[in-house]
What we know:
There is one protein chain. This protein is an alpha+beta fold and 196 residues long. The chain has two domains: 2-43 and 128-184, Alpha-Beta Plaits; 60-113, no CATH class. Helices cover 47% and strands 17% of the residues. It has seven helices and six strands. The protein has helices at 12-24, 61-82, 84-87, 90-112, 117-123, 129-138, 154-166, and strands spanning 2-9, 32-37, 143-149, 170-177, 179-180, 183-184. A four-stranded antiparallel beta sheet has the order 2-3-1-4, covered by helices on one side. Helix 2 (61-82) packs antiparallel against helix 4 (90-112). It is rod-shaped. It starts with a strand and ends in a 12-residue tail after the last strand.
Amino acid sequence: MSTIIAARFEDQDHGEKVVAALRDAGFSPEGISLFYVNPHGQHDIYPIGGDENTSPGARESGKGALAGGGVGAVVGAAAGLAATPVAGPLGVAIGAGIGAYTGSLAGAMGKTDQDSGVDEAESRGELDEKEVEQHKAIERQAGTYVAVRTGDTESRTQRAVELFRVHGGVDIEHAEGELRDGHWTTFDPRSVVNLV
């Protein structure tokens, strides 16, 4: 594992300029990587897409479907019972089935459209503005990134940080990992950012 310094840049042109500056400063081209990080949730890590095994917005949908299905079945059975003179005894079962289906769909949909935990806590006033900004700072933002392997020398690490700052790099981070042949092989876009 080596020390890696990375930063986000405005666009690819800015990224290419800092790559040239790093090479001019003596950093090995094999130890420099220019890449793009997709927005959170769109990294296609799982075979079905996305960053997580379950959709964050759908975590509570099962509970909503269960509650809605129960309420819908009762309401549907009551409607079917009222329609027994017209539909016969089968009306109760049909009404309960239609009610359960409709209720479970409504319950699941009602629970699906929820914000993330941080957004929910912020909207309830449980987090102040500083805490929200801290959360956003440790979540890697989408954009063009340049990473450079600096080894274990403090002077090379500081030189990389200086070059990133001069060329407009933001969210400059420190990481440990493997950067070989121009590829940061151990990079995980979901990992917590360790800002410099």
